[in-house]
Amino acid sequence: MASKLEKRALEPQGLQPDDKNEKYADESSAPSAQPSPPNEAEDSLSNNEETTYPEGGFQAWLVVLGAFCGTAASIGLYNTSGLFEAYMSTQLLPNESTSKVGWIFGIYAFVTWFLGVQVGPTFDAMGPTSWTSFLRAEIKTKIGTDYYQIILAFSLLTGAGTSLIMNPAVASVAHWFNRRRGLASGIAWTGSGIGGVIFPLMIQSLLPQVGWAWSLRAFGLILFVLCTVSVALCRSRVPPRNGDATTWRDTIPSARIFLDGTGAMALTTAGAVLTDLAYFIPVTYVPSYYVARQHLPPDATLTGTASFAYQLLAILNGSSCVGRLLAGYVSDRLGRYNTMILSLFLCAISVLCFWLPDILIPNVPNTGLLIVFVMLFGCVSGSNVSLMPVCMGQLCETQEFGRYYATCFSVVSFGALVSIPIAGALIDAVDAPGKTKFWGVALFTGLCYVAATLCFAWVRLRVKGFSWKTRW
């Protein structure tokens, strides 16, 4: 069976621009990860060929709008972690080590991705409202000042809400777009960048005026509105594989998706782990790095002297919007894995050739090198974040997209769990003043991106060979 799947994966197939009723050529050539008897495989393929996609229209774009609001509320909050880390480490928990504070965000990221192991398969079987209809999408209005209170309110409660709104929102887009899925997903994921621009600037302006508690209450109200719109607009369309016979057993995750005979899903997941392991570090530590770089006092996080630290985070997320849109457009023409490999390579370049030199070169006269890193990293890292679910779609049928995406990112969650604690430990381990203590974490981030690039390149070569002219 594995050899048969591999043969299907290696067969070149074409697609005419106007052929909207056929599967995307790359997806029809992707290996199926569910071993089954030959007759079932043939029936599944036949059913898959009969599936059509609107590729646009009023309802389809409403779903994209709903996904946009969902990612703005969920991953937009995720991308604002740098602001919370800078404030918590200097104001709420000034006596705690960097590594210990890092566990707050590691657990938050872990819960965000790990809950997808059940949310995704349930979406495949029952649609988005089965989970999001009872979502209470708001963060606790006042996070306490004790370490355990922050863990409970932010890491666990907010992480659960992020997962419940994000997974169905992302999976819904795949039910309405196939040939233009890269573009549609790019637009949907742009919401996370928009949220990452607005939220830091909003909280920065509110903190000196109304304080921590009321800033979070205003933030929670905005998240509630965005989540309400997302729940109202996101809809599934492709019926479950088993139709009306779908039962609770169809919502159970399965590790069999990794046993496709080619290693494509396993290596893609490994690349996703390394990508998220690296991505969350600059997003979390850029504000703190700027404070250390400029030798600002701890209480400067609430004053104008450190305001640029928050603005850097907004610049990073704003640049990611450009990357997500551009990558979505390009990937539909050059191939999803091809574009992903390029974006990961540029992430490694941005970290190792711009951030690391800014750390190691003493007495840099201005912030030009840092700004270049933030803009370039934001653009290319935003593109690989939005391309990840699209690459997942290359390896499965639409009815199983939620299961594949959620299972992959449930594995990714373990990388996210240790990412920030590892980064915090590396910062604590470097006995150096100011910005120099960040050189270890920057090197670690760059090497993770290099390894992720190799994983995706291996999958590309394994499935489609050495001809880079092939769109996949």
Written account of the structure:
The chain has 16 helices and no strands. By secondary structure, it is an all-alpha fold.
Instruction: Compute the CA-based radius of gyration.
Output: 22 Å
Order of helices and strands: HHHHHHHHHHHHHHHH
Our estimate of the beta-strand percent is under 5%
Net shape: globular
Name the poorly predicted regions. 1-49, 130-142
Q: Give helix % range.
A: over 70%
Write down how many β-strands occur, each being a DSSP E stretch of 2 or more residues: 0
Could you give the distance between the termini?
23 Å
Gist?
With 472 residues, this protein is mostly helical. It contains 16 helices and no strands. The longest helix has 53 residues, at 181-233.
Write the layout of secondary structure elements.
Elements: H1 2-10, H2 25-28, H3 38-50, H4 58-78, H5 81-92, H6 98-114, H7 116-126, H8 129-132, H9 147-173, H10 181-233, H11 264-293, H12 307-334, H13 336-360, H14 368-393, H15 401-429, H16 439-464
Helix pairs in contact: 4-9, 4-10, 5-6, 5-11, 6-9, 6-15, 7-9, 7-15, 9-10, 10-12, 10-14, 11-12, 11-14, 11-15, 11-16, 12-13, 12-14, 13-14, 13-16, 15-16
What labels describe this entry?
single chain, about 475 residues, mainly alpha, 16 helices, globular, disordered N terminus
